[in-house]
Design brief:
With 276 residues, this protein is of the alpha/beta class. It contains 10 helices and 11 strands.
């Protein structure tokens, strides 16, 4: 199975180099599409010469429009998008491919995620479970896009693209759409990806809060009233599913200080929440 990974890009030269490197060393057949909106920070000076990626430079209507454009050009059997400040861990795509080969009834799979600071150092982690419709709709998206992988059937047959009118919360709306269509999903139970706190992550901004609020308000009134129960059920499900427990582990990422090779970080005391 061939992968197609789409990366939306705009003025993120240093982070994009690390992202590309993390896809290029996966040891599987992978097509990496970089959809750049016309970066003027020097990115195009090296990106257009990088033979590891297929580059398309054109104005877009935002990140989700760029992702849709890239997905429309994708030729792979398994698809994903990976932002410039995100990376795949060693062997991630091989693990994902093996999972999809064993579970042909599954169309979407979720990996676990390491959350790191700008130096690549561990902050916390997120272990994934399959999302539930009304919790996602009324509360928040409990998965991360950097560790979400799906079959191209979602595009070819279900036509499930992202809502490009949104700037920050289209992934949440997309997940609600998948759950409404009863798309078959599963959790891998393996770390596949790294999300980096760069200081410019849009998911914490005011617009993201407004769009997430609008998504919540689009849910049925009865579901909004039951929101506290959905939150309680979500937490108990994670507790009894072992999500809050993780033994010591190590991970390897590319860093700004060492973009040429992965650096290893040992995690002696894993935590499922950010330190205060």
């Amino acid at each position: 199975m061939r992968f197609s990974i789409v990366t939306p890009s705009y003025r993120s030269s240093a982070w994009l180099k690390l992202c590309i490197a993390s896809v290029a060393d996966q040891q599987v057949e992978v097509e990496h599409i970089v959809q750049d909106a016309g970066s003027d920070d020097g990115t195009l000076g090296w990106l257009l010469q990088d033979r590891r990626v297929r580059v398309f430079v054109e104005k877009d209507q935002g990140m989700y429009d760029a992702i849709n454009r890239g997905l429309g050009r994708a030729r792979g059997d398994l698809l994903a998008w990976l932002n410039c400040d995100e990376q795949y861990l060693p062997g991630a795509l091989e693990t994902v491919a093996a999972f999809f080969a064993r579970h042909r009834q599954i169309d979407v799979a979720f990996g676990d995620v390491v959350l790191a600071n700008a130096q690549g150092e561990y902050r916390c982690h997120r272990k994934m479970q399959t999302p539930l419709k009304y919790h996602t709709w009324t509360c928040h998206l409990s998965t991360l896009s950097c560790a979400t992988f799906f079959r191209r059937r979602l595009l070819d047959e279900e036509h499930l693209l992202l809502d490009s009118t949104l700037r920050d919360a289209a992934d949440g709306k997309w997940m609600v759409n998948l759950l409404q269509r009863r798309i078959r999903m599963a959790a891998l139970g393996r770390f596949t990806s790294v999300f980096t706190f760069t200081g410019a992550n849009m998911s914490a901004g005011a617009n993201a809060q407004r769009e997430n609020r609008a998504l919540c308000l689009s849910a049925p009134a009865w579901a909004r009233r039951l929101r506290p129960l959905f939150i309680l059920h979500h937490r108990l499900r994670r507790l009894f599913g072992g999500v809050y427990f993780q033994g010591p582990f190590a991970y390897e990422v590319f860093t700004l200080a060492h973009p040429e090779r992965r650096q290893r970080f040992q995690v002696a005391r894993p935590a499922c929440r950010l330190p205060r």
